[in-house]
Amino acid sequence: MSSDAMDIDSVPEAAVDNNSNEDAVVDKLLEILKQVSKSTLSMDSRYVWKSLRDFAALRHDVTVENTSILVNLVYPDDSSYKKYLLKTIHPTSRPKVENAVKFREEYPASLYQLQQDGTSLDVSSEVNSFVHYIVQSLLLDSNRIDELQQFNKTHVIPQVLKQYNNRNLDLINAKIWFYINRANELTSTPNDSSLLAEMMQYLKSATLKHDNETKATLITSILRQYLRLGEIELAADFVSKVEFPSGDNVSSPLEARYYFYLSKIHAIQLDYSQSHEYVISALRKAPHTKNSLGFLQQANKLQCCIQLLMGDIPELTFFHQKGLEKSLLPYYHITKAVKLGDLNLFTQSLSKYKKELVQDSNYQLCVRLRSNVIKTGIRMISLTYKKISLKDICLKLHLDSEQTVEYMISRAIRDGVIEAKINHEEGYIETSELLNVYSTKQPQQVFDERIRFVNHLHSDYVTGMRFPDSREEDNSKKLSDESLETTMDLNSMNLSDFDSDLDDVI
Amino acid sequence: MPSLPELTKGLKTAFEGKQYETCLRLLLPIKIELIKAKLLIPDIKSAKENQSYLQDLNIAKKILEIGALSSIYCEDFETFMNYYSQLSAFYFSDVKELSDSDSKFKLISLYLLILLAQNDYTKLHSEFEFLSRYVTNLEESSYLSYPVKLERLLMEGSYQKAWDLLQTGSKVEEFNVFTKTLKEAIREEIALNSEQAYSSLPLFNAKTLLFFENEKEMEAFAKERDWSVNHGVITFGNDSTPDRIESGDTVDMAIDYAVHLESIV
């Protein structure tokens, strides 16, 4: 596209220098839209994947100006969407693009489709949804949250999400829902449940359509909403009722988020071992990049709490991970107190860092650690001594009576913190012989599990491979490169959303 | 059919006269009237707009509170749970006039105590998490601190302190309704712990551990739990042998791996 076609009325003279830059962005956006429209012809949603990824890279270059040029160019003048889109992008200014009609005529036909009345042309559903998505991200990035909320309510939900029924849209819809939820979270009061009902309804139809990506986004959004309200019971019920799309059908960042919420729910419901498994999977599934740092921080914090609650002490290196050091500081101090078995120090650090902990909504979990401080103390003693009198324990842990110690130890035995027996008459505890795990089935089971996992991975890869079509020998070369790239990119998808979202995960 | 104000008046006199059974009986027709007037489940939107509706809702809230307290006195916890879930729609709404109430924290604490007495820790902790969004200092609120403290003592295993706390009782008389159930819950906990922690325990010592007055009561309790008592000593049979490796399984697995390996190579 030559630059003389890009004379823009509203852009002031000083901005002329920027024009070429703006043009380049518009060009790139157009390329993305063309790519999106390819999926209309090929019915292959991988093009949408790729477009979303390309857009993520371009996201910070999107401005009010170039978006409005884009809308002006792409949408026909009589399109019902054009007017409100332009108005949303910028309420007052009206950039005009000359020769827009001429440019439109050069665009591939797949960008457009016939309207229902059969006479007028409008942009195709894929392109239209994608443009709405661009506008959403523009509004969020420029912090126009109220406008975004308004835009979502009046236009996106009724006119885009509910109108089209097209499988190629699944991936875009997932993104759109993410922004709707985010905007709602930032603007409305927690008690407003109108969007929740809307999401539930759409979840139902997404499930029926096997639209996994949207389904996964909605499930995580709904869980997030519940956790924000503190409705743990509801969240747990919800999890037991829905089926999260598994494995290869959904992008891994979404899975990571889902596991994170599951972990939180289980931790609050005192099911620590399950919770620990989930938080580990969340950390493994999450992309480890700069953009996902917020998520990693939250997940690591949660992991630290869970480990402590299970009676494990995280290693020192855990607190010195790159980029996490500062945010893990409160947890470091708490861990230190638990490790030393020092109740006073624990109470001190708890009150000192209360604000941070409440903000991470891990405070209630940390309060529970109180009993763990004692338990860790007991555990240390039990590991060190084979046989020790109750009185000595009482002195070591600064507890007030032998009877209290006896109760606490019996509790610790029941919780599996230590393996020991109390001899009441003579007033001592004796650590049981350590069970040799290699005489049990356990190692074999774990080994078996791993081998199965590897086998499964292998067969997944075999079925997941794509081969070029032999009939189109020439075309295929180019296409296969592209598709290979696309498939490989799947895993790195969605990164861009992490930073906007997970910094303030509840 | 008498009208709502008349019924409410009757309810109030019955409650003040401490006739709690009568209260519960009176509440049935009242609730039906409330449903008819659309007051049982608050419509938050119209409450914000309509002053008189808001006042009616406040009366409805008071009625439900009376119902909840009466059911506590009658030790009918299931009914209390029903009232509480209806009340929580009022307590946790975003209309200030509705969510404020003199008995609010008392009733929440009672609810927590019931959960504690029923040993339902999952729900209890979910509830703590939920409440922490509305109340910043759970430990320092005059009513809520009681269940919170009790829970903490029980979690730690400081049963003696918990027992003492129950023994001295609380200023709030409704809380003392739970003393008996909670004591039983504590005993239950200790019994479960003991099964794991001791291989044998003299009856005399068990008596002190479980806060029984005399050995007879202790023996009856032991019988209930199927503990074997011989010559004044309780023995707990709890030895479980770890599973051994079966050679058959190992062979099966090895063959399975071989088959998979073959398909890869």
UniProtKB/TrEMBL annotation, chain A:
GO CC term (a single one): proteasome regulatory particle, lid subcomplex
Domain of life: Eukaryota
GO molecular function: enzyme regulator activity
Family statement: Belongs to the proteasome subunit S3 family.
Keyword entries, A-Z: Proteasome
UniProt-recorded name of the protein: KLLA0D10824p
GO annotation, biological process: regulation of protein catabolic process; ubiquitin-dependent protein catabolic process
Domain PCI residue range list: 256-436
UniProtKB/TrEMBL annotation, chain B:
PANTHER family the record matches: 26S PROTEASOME NON-ATPASE REGULATORY SUBUNIT 8
Gene3D superfamilies on file: 1.25.40.990
Lineage per the UniProt record: Eukaryota, Fungi, Dikarya, Ascomycota, Saccharomycotina
Xref: Pfam families: CSN8_PSD8_EIF3K
Sequence similarity: Belongs to the proteasome subunit S14 family.
Organism of origin: Kluyveromyces lactis (strain ATCC 8585 / CBS 2359 / DSM 70799 / NBRC 1267 / NRRL Y-1140 / WM37) (Yeast)
Domain PCI: 75-252
Example GO BP: proteasome-mediated ubiquitin-dependent protein catabolic process
Alphabetical keyword list: Proteasome
The name this protein goes by in its record: KLLA0D11374p
UniProt signal peptide: none
InterPro entries (alphabetical): 26S_Psome_Rpn12 (IPR006746), CSN8_PSD8_EIF3K (IPR033464), PCI_dom (IPR000717)
Cellular component GO terms, alphabetical: cytosol; nucleus; proteasome regulatory particle, lid subcomplex
